[in-house]
Amino acid sequence: MKLFELLDNVNKIVPLKYAFEDDSVGITIGENESNVNNIVIGHELDDYLFEYCSDNNIDTVITYHPPPYKKIIEEDDSENFLPDSITTSFIDSSINVITIHTAQDVCKDGNADTLVDLFNIMNPKVFAQTVGKYGAGRYGTVDMVSPKELKKLIENKLNTKLIRTNEYFENLADISHIAVLPGSGTQFMEEILDITQVFITGDISHRYLLKADEEKMGLIQIGHISSEIPGMRKFVEKFNKFMELEINYVYKDFYE
């Protein structure tokens, strides 16, 4: 199989055209005509995945996160992007990489829809739009739950202990409206301030915790990849069924 043929198959499961416009999806390392023999699905490029590829003769990786690059400001103030050291390791080893990132967040049964199912969100609606009706976030109603019960539910459903809240969340009584966005979504917080009681996402800066206090909205920060892993597991299942393969999903569970 050629890399472009694998990309075509991935595209049938996760339409890449629905990703955010500035997102790096598709073939991020390698060429269309590169040969594909042994595949693994990873969450991101890291030493753990690189070692797995080296030990198992893997030549192609499908990742959720794009390969990391460093932004360099040149003397003429123009921007240039150079591969990070781990990206260089994959390039130098001729390991192809296909990335699905926000296309996987927004697609049907992707990362956002999986969170809807996990938390039994009723009448879900989309926010953080990418293209047309597609978006990275979901909000809706849930059966009444206390703050303590919601935190416990998150721990159990996402297999994580990495939970942080703003102060206002602790003052809530019963919760019936929540919003979720896999990965880091605080830049979309303004969209849902008036329509939800609690927003669950990852990578929340102190500034946003304070802003949520001011706006009287509960904010829950979970481990970044904890919100993405359930949807990625679904992707792996769909990919294996579609391709009639048994491809492993590799990530550092320390960060769940």
What is this structure, in a nutshell?
With 256 residues, the protein is an alpha/beta fold. It is built from 9 helices and 13 strands. It has 2 domains: 3-103, Udp-n-acetylmuramoylalanyl-d-glutamate--2,6- Diaminopimelate Ligase, Chain: A, domain 1, CATH 3.40.1390.30; 111-225, NIF3 (NGG1p interacting factor 3)-like (Udp-n-acetylmuramoylalanyl-d-glutamate--2,6- Diaminopimelate Ligase, Chain: A, domain 1).
What is the mean pLDDT?
95
CATH superfamily of the largest domain: NIF3 (NGG1p interacting factor 3)-like
| CA-based gyration radius | 19 Å
Strand content: 25-35%
In spatial order, strands of the major sheet run 7-8-10-11-12-9
